[in-house]
Design goal:
109 residues, 4 helices, mainly alpha
Length: 109
């Protein structure tokens, strides 16, 4: 019997961190490459790409294999070969809509 891994709500387990990173990068690459919109800075995108850990299995063997085969840090062109591009498009549009409806930070002078 394997001992349970103790986590708390403030320390995400590596698989969750990697899963979320890949989702964010997928949506960011799509919005940039297909919609000419940026949802994160180039610097943030580059840092996140360099942090991708392809040794982590995220629970989606098909997408894990796709990431290992197709992902290249330093460019977002890999998004054009994503096997679930239709779903990515839906998520990207939802993300952009949430950004446009978020309260704007206003400065009073």
């Amino acid at each position: 019997m394997t001992p349970a891994v103790k986590t708390n709500r403030y320390t995400p387990i590596p698989v969750e961190t990697e899963r979320r990173r890949r989702i964010r990068l997928t949506v960011a690459a799509f919005t940039y490459e297909y919609l000419s919109e940026s949802v994160m800075s180039d610097g943030e995108f580059d840092r996140e790409c360099l942090a991708v850990d392809l040794s982590v299995d995220t629970g989606r063997a098909d997408l894990d294999e796709w990431w290992r085969r197709e992902f290249t840090p330093g460019t977002g062109m890999w998004i054009r070969r994503h096997p679930e591009l239709g779903l990515v498009a839906i998520r990207a549009k939802q993300w952009l809509e949430s950004l446009s409806t978020a309260p704007q930070d206003t400065q009073q002078g």
